[in-house]
Amino acid sequence: MVQPSLHELLATARVVALPLVTRFRGIDVREALLLEGPEGWTEFSPFAEYGDEEAAVWLAAAIDFGWTTPPAPLRDRMPVNATVPAVDPDSVPAVLARFPGCRTAKVKVAAADQTLAQDVARVAAVRRALGPEGRVRLDANGGWTVDEAERAVHALAEFDLEYLEQPCATVEELAEIRERTAYLGIPVAADESVRRAADPLAVAEAGAADLLVVKAAPLGGIRRALEIVERAGLPVNVSSALDTSVGLAMGAHLAAAVPELPFDCGLGTASLLAADVTAEPLAPEDGTVPVRRVVPDPVLLDRYAADAERTSWWLARLERCFAELNR
Predict the structure, then answer these.
(1) Is 1 contained in some domain?
(2) Containing domain of residue 197, as a range?
(3) Measured torsion, CA atoms of residues 34, 37, 39, 41, in degrees rounded to the nearest 10
(4) What CATH number did the domain enclosing 247 receive?
(5) 90 with 186, same domain?
(6) pLDDT tens track of the chain, all 327 residues?
(7) Are 145 and 168 in a shared domain?
């Protein structure tokens, strides 16, 4: 991989703070640091709570996308899912309306401030809105214990689920809940057990999941993610981490290079942003997003620039993570 100097990275670094339409993952504003390399714009945006060692992997991905030509795409558009945060049932139609043409919805469940009854009501509202032919998948972000997950699966199985993403936190727990609920025929997907694991292949080797959810940035870039896909030997889906359209472009290039991709991808999350860095965001149209590079609009970069304190925080983080990569 081509390795730019820290000076090169800092020379083009822009930090933005983008408001969200709906509170998501406990935040109302998504911050990101954008960089311009010889291949185009790229994004470094690990969540604020991540430590430097983990965040450095995201920087490796940003450098890979900005300084190296991505693999040749096998597709020019990617089908995507709608993402439904932990909203009230009455808000579901408005959320889905921001994802035109999407016939798959990923519904957030197991939030710390939500009850199972609230989750059931939200999923029921999504199923009603999509109708019997729509696909509904759930994402618990590892928020349940095994017993809680078992109760939840029984309560939610009636909604004809496509799969259940990361119901529990650990590989061992995933294996146990998969075994307990196998008779229901609801596949278990692993996300955090891939992207936040020291060994992203451990979940596949343990037989703890039916499919993997892969994301370019947390896995160190498109090429490393493709290596994991090849070695895992399981079906995969490609998703994002609430990126700007610049970061979503990286995810779209990863998805376009995966040989077999039987699922609608989680790459439509620009629709959760109330603002973006481009006037032509990678937002869903007819249920798909294009595979292309995104060039930020200078006016929008200025309009949504983070304040001086947050900009300094991100630039200092960039320097620390760069040092981490070069140890």
Answers:
(1) no
(2) 77-290
(3) 10
(4) 3.20.20.120
(5) yes
(6) 678 999 999 999 999 999 999 888 788 999 999 999 999 999 999 999 999 999 999 999 999 999 999 999 999 999 999 999 999 999 999 999 999 999 999 999 999 999 999 999 999 999 999 999 999 999 999 999 999 999 999 999 999 999 999 999 999 999 999 999 999 999 999 999 998 877 889 999 999 999 999 999 999 999 999 999 999 999 999 999 899 999 999 999 999 999 999 999 999 999 999 999 999 999 999 999 999 999 999 999 999 999 999 999 999 999 999 999 998
(7) yes
Choose the catalytic residue: 14, 178, 195, 215. 215
Query: Do 66 and 101 reside in the same domain of the chain?
Result: no
106 in active site: no
Tell me which of 14, 30, 108, 122 is the catalytic residue: 108
Same domain, yes or no: 82 and 155: yes
